[in-house]
Amino acid sequence: MAFQKLQFNLLPKTKMLNHSKSFLTNISSRRSVRDFSDKAVPIELITNAIKAAASAPSGANKQPWYFVIVSDPQIKKEIRLAAEKEEKAFYNYRASDEWLKDLEPFETNSSKPFLEKAPSLIVVFKKTYDVREKQKKKNYYVNESVGISCGVLLAALHNSGLATLTHTPSPMGFLEGILRRPKNEKAFLLIPVGFPAKDARVPILNKKPFKEICNIL
């Protein structure tokens, strides 16, 4: 493998701190949105965010992810119907009583209109293995790598001024069928993307204080 000199822009400490505070303020305002406007989103905003996500680190640089952007109304409707079928089973008998009680404050149910209303959906797939020259090639730390990539994706979309939701109907195998993905790809995350509706509501949340999530030694 060839190497090259690292190009690293060392910033003055004051500028570093300003960047740090600015990012913290911006990303802290991100919320999961379930009420979307049907206003179209410039496709370049989404493709740029996916390119940013694809820059994420991965085990042995295998980059075990694949992204599908869905804007076609008919496909979105098909996804909604399949997702709601799984969600009805979840709320009716799959989820434990404790889980359902924890969800009560969020007022969620099996109806998922945002899957049609949001102008675009991003479906993230994890590649359990690669296929090259008709041979299976092992991927490493797949869940960790794709999870990091999704974090970058959400941050990039928010930074572009877009609203998102992390949606994980379980199981999500229907996405592989609807979007005709190969056997080595498994649905990882479904992200509605767009602008919030004018009357969009989000729950009032309290995040854990810093001292409960971090220890400085």
Helix content: 40-55%
Form type? globular
Which ranges are low-confidence, i.e. pLDDT below 50, for 5 or more consecutive residues? none
Biggest sheet: strands, sense, closure?
4 strands, antiparallel
Please state how the strands of the largest beta sheet are arranged side by side: 1-2-6-5
CATH class: Alpha Beta
Q: Roughly what fraction of the amino acids lie in strands?
A: 15-25%
Q: Span from first to last CA?
A: 37 Å
Mean pLDDT: 97
The chain-level structural class is: alpha+beta
Radius of gyration: 19 Å
H/E element sequence: HHEHHHEEEHEHEH
Fold-level CATH name: NADH Oxidase
Q: Architecture, according to CATH? A: 3-Layer(aba) Sandwich
The tally of domains stands at 1
CATH superfamily: NADH Oxidase
Number of strands: 6
In DSSP terms (H or I, runs of 4 or more residues), the helix count works out at 8
Q: How would you describe what is shown here?
A:
About 40% of the residues lie in helices and about 15% in strands. The two termini are about 35 Å apart. A hairpin with a 2-residue loop joins strand 3 (about 130) and strand 4 (about 135-140). It has helices at about 15-30, 45-55, 75-95, 95-105, 115, 140-160, 175-180, 210-215; strands at about 65-70, 120-125, 130, 135-140, 165, 185-195. The longest helix has 22 residues, at about 75-95. The chain is built from 8 helices and 6 strands. The mean pLDDT is about 95. It has one domain (about 35-195): NADH Oxidase (3-Layer(aba) Sandwich). The strands form 2 sheets. The chain has a 4-stranded antiparallel β-sheet. The chain has a two-stranded antiparallel sheet with strand order 3-4. Helix 2 (about 45-55) packs antiparallel against helix 6 (about 140-160). The chain is an alpha+beta fold.
